[in-house]
Amino acid sequence: MRSLTESVELDRVLTQRAASRIPPGVGKVLSAVEEAAESTKLWCAAAVVMVSLGGRRGRRAAGAGLTALAGAQLISNRLCKQLVDRPRPPKEWFPHDEADDRPGSSSFPSGHTAAAVAFTAAVAPAWPAAGAACAVPAAMVALERVQSGAHYLSDVAAGAAIGLATAWLTRRAPRLVLRYGIRRAAACGPGGSGQIVPSPR
């Protein structure tokens, strides 16, 4: 119980410190980037550019990015926010009025961060240069969610973890399904036992 209390207090201190140390000018830039990313506009626009300029590689990167983004939004907004009803950080922590313009949904996790990280992490393996370009606004979105008072630092960290996990699943799931299908076909084919034997690790 003590460790939980200490963790909550550390989260509070880090959130306040991170928000208070960002200069107002930087905060305006972060807010502009976050506004562009609202409702996934920024990431959809990035996907269109990839498809237009990147050929087959661009189409693959855009498809992976949008698939991971959709999965991250589903997990963070439709699942986690329904299970964890965490209030937003107190408005008095933040020396600006941006905290007045916050959604009424649960603070945990940060759906904006989950979407940004998922898209970027899924794009990077298919097109590293595009992934590196997307990493800059993705990091800015994550920082803005704390600076604006919309989230605790732990909310943003959880959103980033969801984004990374969703991107990993987006890349691995087709291989896992294919592997399962091959093993299933071998088991049910002539001479097969009808049972799927786990492959050696």
List the helices and strands and how they pair.
Blueprint: H1 2-20, H2 24-37, H3 41-53, H4 55-83, H5 111-126, H6 128-147, H7 153-188
Helix pairs in contact: 2-6, 3-4, 4-5, 4-7, 5-6, 5-7
Name the features.
201 residues, mainly alpha, 73% helix, 0% strand, globular
Written account of the structure:
The chain is mainly α. Residues 193-201 have low confidence and may be disordered. Helix 2 (24-37) crosses helix 6 and helix 5 (111-126) packs across helix 7 (153-188). It has helices at residues 2-20, 24-37, 41-53, 55-83, 111-126, 128-147, 153-188. It has 7 helices and no strands.
SS field, number of helical segments: 7
Mean pLDDT: 85
Low-confidence stretches: 193-201
Tell me the number of strands. Answer: 0
Main beta sheet, described? none
Task: Give, in order, the helices and strands.
Answer: HHHHHHH
Please state the overall shape, judged from the principal axes of the Cα atoms: globular
Oligomer: single chain
Helix content: over 70%
Strand content: under 5%
Structural category is: mainly alpha
N-to-C terminal Cα separation, in Å? 38 Å
How would you summarize this macromolecular structure in one to three sentences?
This protein has 7 helices and no strands. It has 201 residues and is mainly alpha-helical.
